[in-house]
Specification:
single chain; 213 residues; alpha/beta; seven-stranded mixed sheet; six-stranded mixed sheet; 5 helices; globular
């Protein structure tokens, strides 16, 4: 199997108010993207915060770092979901297909889901369910944070990587609460060790995925 490599991109950070996550104080969250190279080319998972709105900036106090990936560097973009902090750079890639679950795009276009000005000028390609981009590179629906949330499953042969986006906020929370799609990830991993990377946590989860229930 041809090697699949993953490079994490630091795209800045924002401050989530305490009331929004139920904690005692505001928390600072990194915004992370991932550049994946595989046998057929390269893809980008998420594109950062881009240009926000005054209201959003006042609420989250974002600090943006530039996305150094250029349009010619990738063949496809995958957004784990369409909230502003994951799609801000999409418009820099007007000719590049952006894979998104059909239900997620419909929710975003209905309004009140993201910064609406970030949606136009993007070549969205709607998918329903799992979608193979290349051998060993699979989009897997992981609903929870949003109904149309999706993750990337990468098969390295002797091990696997899951780019889980915001399926869980933190590595320490992975698997809790239980979500049915965890069974699908375990099925795909087939008893091989896994590493799971996230959109808002620099820590990672490593171990054997629990067998399907």
């Amino acid at each position: 199997m041809d090697p699949i490599t993953v490079h994490r991109l630091d795209l800045g950070y924002f401050t989530r108010p305490a009331a929004e996550w139920g904690g005692p104080h505001a928390r600072v969250e990194p915004v992370l993207g991932y550049l994946v190279r595989h046998a057929r080319g390269a893809l980008l998972l998420d594109t950062g915060m881009g240009t926000g709105s005054p209201e959003t900036d006042a609420h989250y106090q974002p600090v943006r770092k530039p996305l150094t990936v250029r349009p010619g560097d990738v063949d496809v973009i995958v957004n784990c979901h369409l909230h502003f902090d994951h799609i801000g750079g999409n418009q820099r890639f007007p000719g590049t297909p952006v894979l998104v679950q059909r239900v997620e795009l419909a929710t975003a276009r209905a309004g009140g889901h993201t910064i609406d000005s970030l949606l136009p000028g993007v070549r969205y390609e709607e998918i329903d369910g799992e979608h193979e981009i290349a051998p060993g590179v699979l989009v897997v629906p992981t609903p929870g944070h949003t109904d149309g949330h999706q993750s990337l499953f990468l098969d390295h042969g002797d091990r696997v990587t899951v780019l889980a986006g915001q399926a869980y906020d933190f590595a320490a929370e992975f698997g809790t609460p239980y979500r049915p799609w965890l069974d699908r990830l375990a099925e795909l991993a087939a008893g091989r060790p896994a590493r799971v990377l996230f959109a808002h946590d620099r820590d990672l989860w490593e171990g054997m995925l629990p067998p399907p229930r």
